[in-house]
Specification:
single chain; mainly beta; eleven-stranded antiparallel sheet; four-stranded antiparallel sheet; 17 strands; globular
């Protein structure tokens, strides 16, 4: 088990037809995680882990803003991941998630009650391991479910999202890792379609 504490920061920018939504720069919701390795077999290069993630409603949120980094609700995500060596430095990473949501009782300008059905996601990545500390990857992810209701009225807003991404990570010190990725949505049934996303993460092991 390796307990983790994650504190995201996000910079949101709207433009073109949705420019009136404005911009937002703020800290997100604090995330507590504790992955558990159920299979750890270096001889066969097979690894399987289960990780619970608890999201605390600590991030920046206001019912008067159109864009918010925080969500003003509790969330719980259960993730399972398989890593399997294909050949030499090439690996296949498969991950599945199911996320459950608490209520947001200050949703929108009317301060409504928003609930959300469980959200599901599958991710697959091909990863090239340049060394024990540096890698690059390319992947696809699919998200579905997660329909919301506001004051008991269905929103009919399941995302059914398909996304592509490219990324990599490296340890710049014995206990310090830098990870980055870029990506975009290929299709979205409901909601905004992202043309570009950049994620950066700094991991410090204590």
């Amino acid at each position: 088990m390796g307990p983790q504490v994650l504190l995201p920061f996000a910079s949101l920018r709207s433009g073109r037809d949705i420019k009136a939504l404005g911009n937002e720069n703020a800290l997100g919701d604090l995330i507590l995680a504790a992955p558990v390795w159920l299979i750890n077999d270096p001889t066969k290069s097979t690894f399987f882990a289960v990780a619970p993630y608890l999201y605390l409603p600590t991030g920046s949120y206001s019912d008067s803003r159109a864009l918010n980094v925080g969500e003003n609700r509790w969330k719980f995500d259960l993730q399972a991941g398989l890593v399997q060596q294909i050949s030499g430095p090439l690996y296949l990473d498969l991950t599945g998630d199911v996320m459950a949501f608490g209520k947001n009782n200050d949703y929108g300008s009317g301060r409504g009650s928003m609930r959300q059905a469980p959200l599901y996601q599958l991710q697959s990545y091909l990863r090239y391991q340049f060394s024990a500390t540096t890698n690059a990857s390319a992947g696809l992810s699919r998200t579905w479910g997660g329909e919301t209701t506001v004051n008991g009225v269905d929103s009919h807003d399941q995302p059914n999202q398909l996304k592509i991404s490219f990324g990599g990570s490296t340890f710049v010190g014995p206990k310090t890792q830098i990870m980055g990725s870029i990506g975009r949505d290929l299709s979205v049934d409901n909601g905004f379609k992202e043309n570009f996303r950049l994620n950066l993460r700094l991991l410090q092991i204590f």
